[in-house]
Design a protein that fits this description.
The chain is an alpha/beta fold.
Length: 611
């Protein structure tokens, strides 16, 4: 969730760190800071509560510079939002640390270090790393050895970087569970928790694996395992462009990403719509043989990705005739789950670093599940690297905290999975497959038509802005879209919203309905429309205001207290993708009216790398 960036170079690295921190703002944070060695070799630190811009203003006024430094944006976990808890954390004016993740045994380490004479100035778990490294640096010959010794005492999932006054030509990094990558530039070496932070200086990157240590100097990069044995990692050339993470003509990244969905869907579907439908090309070498061995599917995800998996579960059962289950990763990991050797375990994560999903995958593998598949938007992230099969959604970088194009591209990936399983089980013949592929081919255009409804949705948003609560209703495939709509509205407008299967309305939620409670209904022209119409009548009869998203070919009409917006003609099984668009736009425009921070909603983070 926090952002890490730093480097050591023959030139001033401070502007690079500040720009890198700015590019990591999307991850969510409440404070920012950096540490560096000044011209006299003295360890300096600057921290601020609030935005990176405030830290940049301090730099502009003081004009400090350095060839070595580390920076951080913090999302508060241990300790409140206060300057003493902001990173970097320092020990004895010699060691500075920036850290992402959780040190689970920090209380025990804190007590031990206090007994050794260390005074703590923060409430964070990070400070134990700084003091522990300082302690070992006094016993061992160099900073790498000290960090390796300290790491053996740390429990949890984390990534951190260490700067030492005693070792002015070296930065040490360590990764265990949280993302960290290295950048190779002409004038030195850099590191970050996201490649976007390094694009201004390099596209040559190495991804650290779990347990890796890295020692960086201006001219040298050394990788070691936990025992100090040298190792190598494959170098990659990042395909991410600076333009892809620039705002362009849009007011917010969320708006940009909503409107990028036709292209994102087309790019994601490209490999499935060619002359041949190749399962091995879609999911990885040997996928067809592996998928023929499975007889059930478990989908693991969190947040928006979980809602995608709720739709995918129904598609898999409908198209492939295979029992499917969707679970929250953080719940699956801690219950007494039963191993099913012939079960396909599918993990969904936009970043590929979502910790609770990653740990759920590791838990499944520990139970003996070898059939694993990841659906992810970042090719070199931890979850796809840990999976037997993988599918890359080609959504491009998603900067806004509230997921939009990552969600819809996950949906089409799950649809492709359902088709693949249906073909392998003989439930989808060549003619039916072509029909499904043609429907997918038409999907980006239909999504563009849904986006064209934005002015109508904007008018609705004006009526939501003064509301404190909202209900979302859906049935069948569209109940997860109601969940997603409620999540989006609460995430960025701070309007409390709940979603229910419409049949549950009279089992309790109907008690909340009055003229002040808008009720949003996902009402496609499918076989459940008449049932849904009866539920809507229950709301209307009690004075509730209905806001209905239906289809062009639906006969449902607007009336007093019933507002209707019509999407393109019913898209069959792919209808959830289309109906995701208007709920995204509704949330976005409601937030605009309320004046909230659309791209960086309070208390939330984009990459959830803590449990």
């Amino acid at each position: 969730m926090c952002g890490i960036v730093g480097g050591i170079a023959a030139t001033d690295v401070v502007p690079v760190i500040l720009e890198g921190l700015r590019r990591l703002e999307y991850r969510g944070y409440d404070s920012a800071g950096l540490a560096f060695l000044d011209g006299s070799g003295v360890l300096q630190r600057r921290r601020s509560i609030g935005r990176v811009a405030e830290l940049a203003a301090v730099h502009a006024s003081e004009g400090f510079a350095s060839g070595i430094g580390i920076g951080h944006t913090r999302w508060a976990t241990h300790g409140g939002i206060a300057e003493q808890n902001a990173h970097p954390l320092i020990s004895s004016e010699e060691i500075a640390v920036v850290h992402n993740g959780i040190i689970e045994n920090y209380q025990n380490l804190r007590q031990r270090l206090q007994a050794l004479g260390y005074a703590f100035s923060s409430e964070t778990d990070t400070e134990v790393i700084a003091h522990l490294v300082h302690w070992y640096r006094g016993q061992l010959p160099n900073l790498l050895a000290a960090v390796q010794a300290a790491s053996r005492e740390l429990q949890g999932a984390y990534a951190f970087a260490v700067l030492s006054r005693r070792d002015p030509d070296t930065l040490i990094l360590h990764r265990r569970g949280c993302p960290l990558l290295l950048g190779i530039a002409e004038n030195g070496h850099y590191f970050a928790s996201d490649v976007a932070a390094l694009l201004p200086v390099t596209r040559r990157v190495l991804y650290l694996e779990d347990g890796d240590f890295a020692a960086l100097s201006q001219n040298q990069l050394q990788l070691r395992d936990a025992e100090g044995v040298a190792l190598q990692r494959e170098e990659h050339w990042s395909q991410l462009s600076s333009a892809a993470i620039d705002l362009g003509p849009y007011r917010h990244f969320m708006q940009k990403e909503i409107h990028e969905q036709p292209r994102a869907l087309a790019d994601t579907l490209e490999g499935a719509l060619g002359d041949e439908f190749s399962i091995d090309q879609l999911w990885g070498e040997g996928a067809a043989a592996r998928l023929q061995q499975i007889d059930r599917v478990l989908l693991l995800a969190s947040g928006t990705s979980h809602y995608a998996s709720l739709v995918g579960r129904q598609w898999i059962e409908s198209l492939a005739g295979i029992p499917a289950q969707a679970e929250l990763g953080h719940e699956y990991r801690y219950r007494e789950s039963i191993a099913e050797p012939r079960q396909l375990v599918v993990t969904l994560s936009q970043s590929g670093e979502t910790l609770d999903t990653y740990e759920a995958l590791r838990h499944a593998q520990a139970l003996g599940h070898s059939h694993t598949l990841s659906i992810c938007n970042v090719a070199e992230s931890a979850i796809p690297r840990a999976s037997a099969l993988r599918f890359l959604t080609r959504a491009g970088p998603e900067i806004g905290v509230a997921s939009t194009k990552a969600f819809t591209t996950q949906l089409v990936a799950l649809y492709l999975l359902a088709l693949s399983l249906g073909v392998l089980r003989g439930r989808i013949n060549a003619t039916a497959l072509q029909e499904h592929r043609e429907a997918l081919r038409q999907l980006p255009g239909s999504v563009q038509q849904a986006l064209n409804l934005e002015p109508q949705i904007q008018l609705w948003a004006n009526q939501f802005a003064d509301k404190e609560h909202a209900l979302f209703l859906g049935r069948g495939l569209h109940y997860p879209i109601a969940l997603e709509g409620a999540l989006k509205l609460k995430e960025i407008s701070y309007i409390h919203a709940e979603a229910y299967p419409a049949g549950e309305l009279k089992h309790g939620p109907l008690a909340l309905v009055d003229a002040r409670m808008p009720v949003v209904v996902i009402a496609p022209n499918d076989r459940l429309l008449e049932k849904l119409a009866a539920n809507m009548q229950e709301v209307h009869a009690r004075g509730g205001q209905l806001y209905v998203f239906t289809d062009l070919d639906s006969h449902y009409q607007a009336s007093a207290g019933v507002h209707v917006i019509r999407l393109p003609r019913h898209a069959g099984l792919l209808s959830p993708v289309l109906h995701a668009i208007p709920v995204q736009l509704l949330a976005y425009h409601a937030a605009l009216v309320k004046g909230t921070d659309v791209d960086r909603p309070r208390n939330l983070a984009k990459a959830v790398t803590v449990e």
